[in-house]
Amino acid sequence: MSNPIQEKIVHGEKLFPFAAYEFTPAFPPELFTAHWHSDYEIIYMQKGAVTFGINGISYPLSAHQALMVNPYQIHYSVSANTSDFSFTSIVFGNSLVFPSTESRIYTRYIHPSAREYIRFFPVLTQETASGMDSLKSIEKICLLDKSRPLCYEMEIQILLLSVFCNLLRANAYDMEIREDFHTLSYVQELLYLLRKNFAEDIKLEALAQNMNISYEHLCRSFKKVVGKSPKKFLNDLRFQHAVYLMKTSEHQAIAEIAESCGFSDMSYFAKCFRQKTGKTPSEYRNHMAGE
Amino acid sequence: MSNPIQEKIVHGEKLFPFAAYEFTPAFPPELFTAHWHSDYEIIYMQKGAVTFGINGISYPLSAHQALMVNPYQIHYSVSANTSDFSFTSIVFGNSLVFPSTESRIYTRYIHPSAREYIRFFPVLTQETASGMDSLKSIEKICLLDKSRPLCYEMEIQILLLSVFCNLLRANAYDMEIREDFHTLSYVQELLYLLRKNFAEDIKLEALAQNMNISYEHLCRSFKKVVGKSPKKFLNDLRFQHAVYLMKTSEHQAIAEIAESCGFSDMSYFAKCFRQKTGKTPSEYRNHMAGE
Q1: Contact: A14, B157; criterion CB under 8 Å
Q2: pLDDT under 50 in chain B at which residues?
Q3: Alpha carbon of B160: minimum distance to chain A alpha carbons (Å)
Q4: Start and end of every HTH araC/xylS-type domain (chains A, B) (predicted)?
Q5: Which terminus of chain A is less hemmed in, N or C, by CB atoms within 10 Å?
């Protein structure tokens, strides 16, 4: 299991910048916390139904549908809508879709204006021919990454290019700018800082002051785009990381784990734990070990 | 019509390094003179039959077959085997097949050893499944370059990747090194110098001396790999360029054209012309204008 918080930072390896992450109830979508990056991402719903959020707007996704996440968009899961589900998140370096930012494919199609990337419409369904073709390609990508036959890297590149080619030809992208880039930019900054420094003692008021906006305004904007307040986001992130460490670092003391995740107060950590799992941290760990 | 001598130097444009050149009896394969480059090239026989040479070995190609030319291989046409024919030569920058020389696709498949590029077997026929699939992709590439629909660049990239993927999976490449790289390297150097400086007064003996080999040895090696002596190659190249200029620079005097192609002696130029076309240069020009 990869680290749910760090996973989004490195997509595959430098030599082949591609990664597919699978989420199931055992690795629940609550771990798919709000983040953003300069790459495109495609979320493919294998079975069941989950609601995702992009820049504050909810998109319920059912089986065999996909969500296109454009560069710099803040995206996260909101809730699982069926008890059983699985989805795959595909993230890839832009070099797999265009050779360089100097290339004609990039300048003509991906980044046609100086201002912004081509922003595809979010939901791909089987209702249109381009959606159907794209979904077929995306499903193949997920399978290829599992079986990894000879030259699967080339085939994945071919399929990613096909998806882009399909959607561009079907005009499945938005020419209008609907987002408030100014608000988005400081929410992105705060999100980046929280994800990077969650283990430390973070003073939200001081961060707002550094960013030159009022704390209230920052909180309101953050909640609007991310779906929860910065405080709750930070707390959830710390909790998720603690759970991750309790699963993977069997010999680390619980107090040590709590501290390494930014919980300075052990009783507060225990309270959070009981609220979310109905168990104390030790009960939870024993329960995990017994599974 | 592009310049038959220079055409191989720039393949498309930097932003989309891809070019397809068509050859017919009106733009005959004699103009497809020996050259080499670090890119892969694919020659697709649309109709009729033409024999090509690669590093001194002849490959007769019939309709709907293709020739894979690997990086650094010296390639040229030998003769047309039918009176009517057409073939398309596809040349593309390597960046269309692998994102960079750092990428996994490059290091794992294209350049697996430090010594050399993957060298595909030369002739693609419809007799194998991989040949058939590759030929279909190559034919589509030729058509796409003519119609150039939206995103045709992406589709061409997809098809080129498919050809490589197909051939790699079918093991349609040679693991053994059959060439004498030492001999090839100075033939390549001489070829490069002749193509670059054909308009100037070239002393072949002096070039051999500069390269530190005997003139006789150089001529023998050159003829073995290119199919004709350096002297004949140079003469043919000059003649072709003169014909090209006579077709495209209508107002340039014949003596001026002869000189700009490296013919210092007008009467020698006229003699060459009569030998090859049965006409004097002026008769040839009038004949061209009347067509």
Answers
A1: no
A2: 1-8, 114
A3: 9
A4: 188-287
A5: C
